[in-house]
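Office hours follow-up: a student asked to see two folded examples consecutively, so here they are.
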Amino acid sequence: MLMDEVDFQILDILMRNSRATYREISEKIKISEVAVHKRIKKLGGVIKSFTILVDQRALGKETTAILMLKCEVGKTKEIAEKLSHVEDITEVYTTLGEYDLIAKIRTRDTHTLKKLVEKKISMLEGITEIRASIVFECFKEEPNLILCP
């Protein structure tokens, strides 16, 4: 899809505030509300969803961990799909390098994390190694990239 500077401006506004109204967007970039509506509709293939960024700690998810997993040959995608359905796993990536998969977990505490790894993740057939790192502090958590046209 070919995008122009106005499309990038609209995306930038929506990434910062997904609740921005057509009027607010139109006032910021100096085009009509109708034009904003049409452009957002046209961006349907680019915009995956309108969402919010939640403070996980405020919801009782105090512990963040990064898991690095090695898988048997040919099992990576199947394991990734299974992990993507496990509660408290927020992100799953297949990777090139020492590990086949990386998963991000948000859970109540280290006890809950231990149970999750022992009772759900390590039981998945095809996982040959699991390494975990617990996050002490997050300095940047930006779900969207800054856009440049």
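And the second, which I mentioned at the end of office hours:
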Amino acid sequence: MAHKNFKKEDFAEDQDEYKLEFRIDEIGEGMNLIVERKNRKGGYEVIQAEIKRLNDRIFICWSEPFDGRVIYDE
């Protein structure tokens, strides 16, 4: 499984939520994605983020920006 790290600054605010955008050619079609949030100790914890798909884009949505990573099949 591959992963892609992201930072708080990568999120874009959209009305009442924050979105992180990826292209399908970066992380696949959105099947079997795992979203992990970085905790204070530097480890990662799995969260159940809302994942949306529009055309060739995948959006990870959350109430606030955070540092983390997305794990996906290569």
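Two things to take away from it. The chain has one helix and eight strands. The radius of gyration is 12 Å.
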